[in-house]
Each structure stands twice: as structure tokens, then as C-alpha cells.
Specification:
The chain has helices at 3-29, 35-63, 69-94, 103-126. The chain is mostly helical.
Length: 127
């Protein structure tokens, strides 16, 4: 990654950290927040936190020339955990008759989950 890109990411991270502190202050005073939106926000923050931790561990493993594979396994495991959580939330949404969907989005999701299912079965059989 180029120095300019590192600087840009660093500035963005500082900006986001400041915004998160403002959101935290607002959350402490807000009385009525939709629980689903709050859950989505909390999940997004957890994903970012875990990704940042994994990237830090990965960078550390490279700097001390250790094997990065354990960190990559943690990242993959985190993706699986998030995919499981997200699939359950989508399932709940699909059961909600008040939500209107676009057919194309559902077809794309169906195709992707079908392909993922096939790959999962291959990996499970190898284990």
C-alpha cells in the first residue's frame, strides 16, 4: 500500500473514531431507538472491531516474520460467524410480510447462497 493510501486510511479512521464517539454520546441520551437498527449498528461495529484486530495481528505477524495463517483462520472464522448471524437476520426479514423485496436481489442472494452451500459441502467432506 502506498504512503498516500496509508495516510488517507489513517485520516478516515481518525474521522470515524470521532464520529463513533459522537454517536456514543447521542446513544446515551436518546430515549427511543429502533432495536433492529441498533442491533445492525452494533453488529457492524463488532465486524469493524474484529477486522481491525485481525489486520493488526496480520501486520504484526509480518513484521516479526511469523506465520500469518493463524490470523487468516481467525478472519475466516469471523466471516463464518457473521454470515451465520446475517443469514438468520435475513431469514427473519423474509418472514416479515410488511417488507417488500426486489426480485433481482432475491435471485442474486439465492444464487450466491446456493454456490456457497456447494462449497461448504465440499469443505465439510474434506474435514
Amino acid at each position: 500500500m502506498a504512503v498516500a493510501e496509508n495516510s488517507t486510511i489513517s485520516l478516515r479512521l481518525q474521522s470515524v473514531a470521532s464520529e463513533l464517539r459522537r454517536i456514543q454520546d447521542a446513544l446515551l441520551t436518546e430515549q427511543q431507538i429502533d432495536s433492529r437498527i441498533l442491533t445492525d449498528f452494533r453488529d457492524a461495529v463488532n465486524r469493524i472491531r474484529n477486522t481491525a484486530w485481525a489486520m493488526e495481528q496480520y501486520a504484526n505477524s509480518k513484521s516479526v516474520r511469523s506465520d500469518p495463517d493463524p490470523v487468516l483462520a481467525v478472519v475466516a472464522g469471523e466471516r463464518i460467524r457473521v454470515a451465520y448471524q446475517l443469514s438468520r437476520l435475513v431469514q427473519t426479514d423474509l418472514e416479515n410480510p410488511r417488507i417488500r423485496y426486489q426480485r433481482g436481489q432475491l435471485v442474486s442472494l439465492s444464487d450466491a447462497t446456493h454456490e456457497l452451500g456447494e462449497e461448504l459441502h465440499k469443505v465439510i467432506e474434506r474435514l
